[in-house]
Amino acid sequence: MALAGCPDSFLHHPYYQDQVEQAPPLSPRDLAGPGFAAPSDRLTHHQEDDVDLEALVNDVNASLESLYPACSMQSETVPLLQNGQHARSQPPPSGTRSLQAQRSQPVHILAVRRLQEEDQQLRTSSLPAIPNPFPELCGPGSPPVLTRGSLPPSQAAAKQDVKIFSEDGTSKVVEIPADMTARDLCQLLVYRSHCVDDNSWTLVEHHPHLGLERCLEDHELVVQVESTMANESKFLFRKNYAKYEFFKNPTNFFPEQMVTWCQQSNGGHSQLLQNFLNSSSSPEIQGFLHVKELGRKSWRKLYVCLRRSGLYCSTKGASKEPRHLQLLGGLEESSVFSLIAGRKQYGAPTDYGFCIKPNKVRNETKELRLLCAEDEQGRTCWMTACRLLKYGVLLYQNFRIPPPRKALLPSFSTPVRSVSENSLVAMDFSGQTGRVIENPAEAQSAALEEGHAWRKRSTRMNILGSQSPLHPSTLSTVIHRTQHWFHGRISREESHRIIKQQGLVDGLFLLRDSQSNPKAFVLTLCHHQKIKNFQILPCEDDGQMFFSLDDGNTKFSDLIQLVDFYQLNKGVLPCKLKHHCIRVAL
Questions:
Q1: Which of 21, 382, 390, 461, by CA, is between 20 and 30 Å from 505?
Q2: For 465-511, where are the alpha helices, taking DSSP H only?
Q3: What are the boundaries of the region Disordered (predicted)?
Q4: Measured between alpha carbons, how far is 379 from 289 in angstroms, rounded to an integer?
């Protein structure tokens, strides 16, 4: 057996074995040491035999408990190594002998531990009680360290009512905990509204009296944001497909002439997002903006640059020397908003305005830093850069790994559907098994054949459906009204506003009634951050009614077939239909 506290490799060391073999037999009195009572005489008559350590240890334990001062004095004056020998740096004191074990046996140390505990109790009890000046930093009941998206348990358990509005004007009051994030609340509303959860729903902070609004980040706490809002402000629940679109297509959001890199020799679009997310790099957005002067109605066109430390304007042309830069606003204690009606409310020179609003401002407009870009791409670039410089890698974590949903309802789950264009491939099912068409020319030919198949299929469906009590022509004119992408009788301006609110991404679309032709419809589509309109006209062929947007070359029996076709084939459109604008009633 091995000594307690000694590894096996130590016991088999050659030096240790030699010491054990050369050690002379010791008497029990030698093992006990000075100050300890001698054991019974039955052990003294067998000095040449093996020592009965079990009985010896029992007697030693009794002696230790009765002679505690002597033991403590010896432990302080005779330093020993792990193997029981004296340290070589200092000789053993006079009156003591080297403690060596004749044979490897277990050592009972419970009594020593008990004495150490009693010694500690005696030492602490003799000192006066000193109160802990920082009780919150220790102990099992100490609160956890605050992190982003978390609150102390006492505050997180508190409930609060929040009123949420939808795009159609309906509202719903929801009771939420204080630590609920915007993403958690969106998931709860999606579940109660029976919508498809594709991580594009968002909560909008809307200030009608200021003409401002912004989308909350997924990690922001709803209760904390509401505490900074005025009574006239409210939350809106809507789609925003452009929330993380800049991670997928960064070159569409950051024009090359607007991006520079400080203290770097090179930096292309491949490293664009890495430089924004890396806190050690110094990306910079630069260009001309219309800036509204504080406390005045006038606007000035200035050269502006955005850095990690804030937004600066140059007082001398396009100079970026430190002496010519003036701070317009910081990003730490502020948020970036879009201007809803900048021309009407603030006399903005363009329709592409945005604002840096301090979090402490509720109703006053004097401290708002209002700016205007020349086009939508410029405004999107400035606002996206502000988000990246303020939140950094946290945005990327929200994009790649959405925050886990709260256990608000018992094991609820929402359907998740991917509408990614990359998940759609051309297939050939002419043989016994299907195959993926990798040749682009062959895929284009298959798309044309699919268009002809759609026309034949629609004609056959109309012939078979003519026996129905509801005439097929009547059914084809009303069936589309049940779809989310159809928005009825809305104006062109309203359709453009909906497209802008739900994100200017490629493939975002909606259908509406035409204002100029009562029998026609209009497809409103976004491509390269520009909104285009395509008229869908009815046409008649062999007594059957069809719909077409390419002058009758491709005909469809109803609008549902038309939308399904252009989701798979670009046709005459600049891009495929990818996302549809939706309004949900709460």
A1: 390
A2: 472-476, 492-501
A3: 22-44, 83-103
A4: 9
| CA max distance for the chain | 128
* Model pLDDT, residue 79: 43
User: What's the rounded mean pLDDT across residues 19-26?
Assistant: 46
Q: Where in the chain is the domain with CATH 3.30.505.10?
A: 492-580
Place of tokens 């007082």: 315
Amino acid occupying residue 218: D
Residues of the chain with CATH 3.10.20.90: 159-239
pLDDT digits (tens, 9 = 90+) for 267-311: 555 577 787 887 777 788 999 999 999 888 899 999 999 999 999
Percentage of the chain modeled with pLDDT above 90 = 40
Give the model's pLDDT for residue 248.
86
What's the Cα-to-Cα distance from 582 to each of 137, 209, 396, 497, 513, rounded to whole Å?
50, 26, 26, 13, 16
d(CA 484, CA 198) in angstroms, rounded, equals 15
Only one residue has tokens 């018992």, namely 410
* Distances 399 to 149, 171, 198 between C-alpha atoms, Å: 16, 28, 12
Q: How far is CA 179 from its chain centroid?
A: 15
User: Domain 492-580, what fold?
Assistant: SHC Adaptor Protein (3.30.505)
Neighbouring CB atoms inside 10 A of 317's CB total 9
The first and second tokens of residue 399, run together, are: 């994009």
* The CATH fold of domain 159-239: Ubiquitin-like (UB roll) (3.10.20)
Residues belonging to the chain: 586
- pLDDT tens, 301-342? 999 999 999 999 999 998 989 999 999 999 999 999 999 989
Q: How many CB atoms lie within 10 A of CB 286?
A: 18
Instruction: Locate CATH 2.30.29.30 in the chain.
Output: 245-400
CB distance 356 to 311 below 8 Å: yes
Residue 90: name the closest of 99, 103, 81 by CA.
Answer: 81
Neighbour count for residue 387 (Cβ, 10 Å): 20
First to last CA, the chain: 75
